[in-house]
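If you are new to this repository, start here. Below is one unmodified record pulled from the training split, so you can see the exact layout before writing a loader.
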Amino acid sequence: MYAPIEDHAAIGDGRTVALIDRTGRIDWLPVPTLDSAPVFAALLDDVNGGSIELAPVAEHRMTRRYVPGTNVLETTYTTERGRVRVRDALVTGIAGRLPWAELTRAIDGLEGIVTMRWRVVPGTVLGSRSPWLDFHDRCVIRVGDLSLGVVADAIGPVARERSGPSGAVGATFRTHAGSEHTLVVSATEREPLHLPDPRRARAGVERTVAAWREWSAAFSYEGPWAEAVQRSALALKLLIYSPAGSIAAAATTSLPESESGGKNWDYRYAWVRDLAYTVGALVHFGLREETHAALSWLLRTIKEHGPELRIFYTLTGGADGRVEELPAPGWRGIGPVTQGNRAADQLQLGVFGDLFGIVRAYLDEADGNVLDVETGRFLADVADRVCDSWRLEDAGMWELEEPHHHTSSKMGCWQALDSAVWLAERGHIGDRAERWAEERDRIRDWISAHCWSPERGAYLMWPGSDRLDASVLLHAPSGFDRGERMSSTIDALAAELGDGHLLYRYTGMRDEEHPFVACGFWRAAALACVGRRDEAVELMDLLVRDSNDVGLFAEMVDADGTAWGNFPQALSHLALIDTAIVIRDLARP
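And here is the target side for that same chain:
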């Protein structure tokens, strides 16, 4: 049975992410890394996808939360006869991230007696592998090049079961007040497998709680919506691929954007856009290590695959985004299930603004950050390329197949050159500021002459179009327009693309998909930028309530809270964070 997307909570270890639904089933876990083909993927194939299950046998009530300041999930089950608590974590080691993946489910009896049931059901890796159980004195599951170990403490005699595509392991056990029970699944790929001691693994959960709390203690944000901002920052931390410093756009692939399917893409890549917004947020939070790692990874990767700037890269810094359809039915049968993303080779001019925006935010801090000489030269060359490239048609922010002169893309080029001038004036990059300033002003004049519609009272999606595009809202915070034209555009967008406090991406999407979470937040930020703060605050109060019960957002959401698209979605959480910061900062004297 496919759980609703919004029913999931996420845990992670800096290398991969697991999703847990409200029944206690882990139905998504790629190992050893987030972009691996998933051995537990019931989220996309309920019959053969694979899962890790844990729940009371009897009818029960469930409440859950994250342990405060962490990404460790705590679920409490209450039956007629007792109460039990489960803490789920992808655990860390004494010195940081473990060299293998280790999922620990620590079960504590709280009151009475509760009969619990667990199962580990390996999947077919979305139709590409046939798992088998090497069940001798120890339980080892082999799936292609993956080795998975299942170890347990006080959770019954482990038995093989005839379920799933190639069998499963599981058991039934009882909890009582003060009892402790542990289930651990470890995983490696093409290397020896470590089978953890369950008692040490239980201690690892507490160590992981402490590590998350230490990270949260370094997090610095004072302002409105602080709880939602911190939870969004923790969600982003889950999506940081720590071996490299890159940041995934989401933890999943192929979750549909609508009932009809089709737009089922793999978001387990590092988008330049998302990484730029993330670094901007991390800078505000004083998280220097992640900021430096992400920027360094991005610059290194762009140079390696240059001179053209791609819109996304693999988490390890590659440039492969080719699409492969996999033989799996998809969430609730809505396919296709894909690995890869067709936008890999598109031209999107807006990424120039994202790149320069991230560098400007990094250097605008008071910590004394400076660029190396090679990077300074490289960025100056990129700025020169923007001077020529802004005149080209592109796919726009929404990765459309038909190229146009997208207004938001031109605004992104304006942002790139405006930041290049700023960098040059402060000696960070080679000084060709005169040319960049002239071309920046030329872009502004072109947008004013061609992209503004007096009849619509709005910036158009592209010149000559009658469509509107919510992505232009990003360029109120960027500084392109904080005046009457942007204010009028906000109202036009709300009238045409609005669904209550939510917003669709662009004209025509009301019939094809659901409101885009980030667009609602962009609207609130733009309202604040044009001086309509009371409206911004009122809208923000509504938007933050659209998260699920543990504070996470997917890509899209309906007014009733139904989530659509990949999950958790970095852009949604970034939009929340950025909007909170914009509204807070604009209120300061």
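Two things worth knowing about this chain: The radius of gyration is 24 Å. The chain has a mean pLDDT of 93.
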